[in-house]
Every structure is written in C-alpha cells, then in structure tokens.
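Same chain as my last thread, 543 residues:
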Amino acid sequence: MRITILTIAIQAEHDLVLVRQRCRQLAEQLGLDTNRQTRLATAVSEISRNAFQYAGGGKVELIVDRDGAQLMVRVSDSGPGIGNLQKILSGNYRSETGLGLGLVGARRLVDGFEIQSSPGAGTTVILKARIAGEVPEESELLSHVDELTRTPSGDPFREVLQQNQELMRAQNALAEANRDLEHSQQAKDRFLAMLAHELRNLLNALRSSMEVLKRRPDEDLRDRMEQIADLQVEHLGRLVNDLLDVSRIIRGTLELRPVPVDAGEEIRRTAVAWGERITGCGRKLTTEIPEGPIWVTADPTRLAQIIGNLLSNARKFTDVGGKIHLAIESGPGRACIRVIDDGCGMEKDQLDEVFGAFAQTSQAKERMTGGLGLGLAITRALAEAHGGSLTAESAGPGLGTTMVLELPLGRPPVEERDAPVKETSSLVRRILLVDDHRPSIQGLSELLRLEGHEVELAADGPQALDLVQEFEPDVVLCDLGLPGMTGHEVARKLRESQTAARLLALTGFVDVASRKEALEAGFEAVLAKPIDLQLLNRHLLTH
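reply #2:
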C-alpha cells in the first residue's frame, strides 16, 4: 500500500528549498540516518531543480510504500521531455547547459531510481530510499502530514547554510577516506618491496649454493651447500603459504578441519618442535601445562601454526639471553594460552596495530630478520576462525609482551575403532606424472625413481590419456592447471574409461572450492605445491 504524505508544487525558487526541507524532515521521521537523509534530499533537490529550470515547473510527491518498506519521492513535470535519455543515463553525455547531469548524480545517491520521459510528454522521476526499521501504520503516517504542514518552512539563507555544512562534512569524510587509502597504498607498497627483497635474498642464496655444487666440492662443503639450499626452499615455502593464507582470509575461503584436540598436548608437541630453534639462538623457553586434557575443537595443523607463529614472534622480539614462557589454563568455557616474553615490548597504541596485514611497528621494522610481517595478521584470523580471539598486552617499550589466545572449550572425542590402514613401504608403483611445467616434473620424477618407482611423463591431457593405455600406471599424479584439457577433464575421461589407476591431483590453489571441484571430477586427494614428499609417499604406499 502506498500513501501520499505530501504534494508540493514547484513554481518558484523558494519551492526548491521547501522540497529539500520537507524531504529531509520526512526521512528523519521514518528513521533514515543523517547521511541517507542528506543523500535523498540532495537527489530530490537536483531533480526538482531540473523540472523548474528546463520544464518551467512541476510537482513533488512524498510517498511511503508500506509493502516495499521504502520512501518514494516522485518528481513530475509536463515539459518538453528528454530526447536523449539513454545516452544521458549511460554516462556518455556531455552537456553544455547542465541538463541531464543531475540525473546521473541523483541516481547514484539513492537506493532506487526510475525515470520515464519522451519528447513532448514530460518527465517523471521516482527516487527511492529503503526504510530500515518498522514502517509506521497508516494512521501514524497520516499524522506526519499534519506535522509537516504545521512545520514552518525555513528561509532560503538558513537552507543554504545547512547545505554548506553538509557539504563540509562530506568533504571531510572524503578527505579522511583518501588519507586511509593513501596509508593503505603506502603499506602495500612497502609490503611489495619487502616481498621482492625476501625473494631476492632466497634466490641469491639458492644460486650461490647451486654454483658451488656445480664445481663438485668436497663432501663437507657439499653438505653445507645442500643445507643452505634446503633452508631457502623451506623459507620460500613459508612465504608462499603466508601469501596463500592471506588471500584465503581476504576472500573468506580459509579451510578448517576441526576435531577434538587436547590443547595442552598440542602445546607440548609445538614446544618440543620449537625448543631447539629458540634455545639454539640464545633464548630460553619454559612451559606451564596443567595435568589432564584441555579439550578444544580445532584444526590441529592450524592450532600448531598459531602457537608456532606466536613463539616465532616472541623469539624475534626477544634479545639473546631473554626468556619466553608458554602457558595454558582453562577457565569458564574458554582455554587461555599465553606466550610471554621479556623482549622489547611496545607502546599501548601499538597493541592492536601489530595484527595489521600490512602494518609494522617501529620495533618490527628494526628487528625484521626475514618474512613478510604477515604472521600475526594470519594468526589472529586463524584464532577468530576457530571462534576465539588473539590480543596483545605490554607494559611499554622494553617491558616485554604477552600474546593472549583464547579458544572455546570443546568436547572430548568419541572413541571409534578405525579399520587398520595397510601400508607397504617397499612396494614399487608405476606412476604417470602429468604437468606442463617441465622443471617441476623432471625433479619430482627423479625423486620418485630414486625411491624405486617406475615413472612416465606427460605434458598435457591428450598425451596422458594415451600413456594410460600404454603404460597402465598404478597412480596418476595430475596437475589441475594443464593447457587445453584441464586436469579435471583428464580425471573425468579416465574415470569414464574405467581405469584402475588411482588419481591424485597437484595444484597451487588449494581451498574449499577447488578441492571440492577436484574430488567431484574423480581425484582421490588434492596435494598442494610445493609437494610434501612425506605426504605424497603416504598416498603412494597406502592401499
């Protein structure tokens, strides 16, 4: 049901002031916030002025659509109409008189915009604004008519002052938004520069190591160069994983596999894994873990990542000889994990800043020793994805930092008897590798041959389908991003051919959607690049 609240004739300049005032007043009575009141009043003012200037006048109707929960303002005139309406609305129109420019701007200010116009038949424009709250009953709406008509119209000078104030507020808001955008862009530029710096360091170390190995050095030097190369590849893998995690977080595709986890036991394992790294660089790690399980519902891999990131951060910002303490306790409905260091600390206004994806505190800039500064941003996002929280506490510079991770308590696991998994560690497999990236496929094929497997290579889908018939592989390792025929299409073709080969997908894009698509195509599992050789072997050697 639509109820017309007020109709105003546009016959003189002061009518335009009245239209703007009445529109804003009714919008306020219907619960629109100040910003939306201004946007609607500005749009109506623009259209009404067009009617006055180019059609010699018209009328404005303020209407409440109860069924559609919206305030409608209909501005109509009986003027010459608009002949090039579609060109104006497309944004390609260049006006010498100003006609039409108000239409495009007004349409951007409101929630709904309709226009009807033709030469010689006048123009009608309907502007719409959604009513967020409950729409008043008809009797209440009609009472607005009396209230509006009894309200004296303001003088044009006061209206101009109000419009100027609104314009100043809009300009200030725009300036603030521009400052935020500039700050964000500067942070991203610094991040890209840091990424380039990290990658160049890694590539430089890898190239130097490879050059030394080419000269066939003695065994000790060869071992050292191999260790350096391994460390650079491990570091590169961490950088890539951090970038992928940030991308998943931004896109909302972060994948968790929650199960009941004893958080105390997970802390013990992580502390053991990190203990040598921390003590090896001159810091001391202590733990405080109560007896008995503390059950949370979490993804074990991600929980270990969270705790590892916090320990890594504490190590980075703690001086040689400093102490790091890892503790857990359970409270009402929550498990609380603290990582406490006696390192450089931070100012109070930096306690939340450290969790920004592209922001760095002054201490962080001074102590950057590798990495992209994404660790804490990822860690907080992971904590929140588990229904928890991550906060920082510090008494000030030089007084250490405490990272507080809180997770909801969960239920203990239900005991189930799983069928034993058969593994035959010495079984030779016939493996078909399908990938168009030749360096990757050559390196992986040689590793598999060193493990004793028979390996054939294919660079695209059609070649893979032919080799399956000739080679009869036990396992097909297939990249998803093949040229021409995709890996998904290869899997579907192989399933249709009733091949007995097991299908494993290789991809650089592992998220919920891509994993689901690959499994639906016929793959048994999806393995992320760079390939985890231990995980690959488990898949190859498990029936």
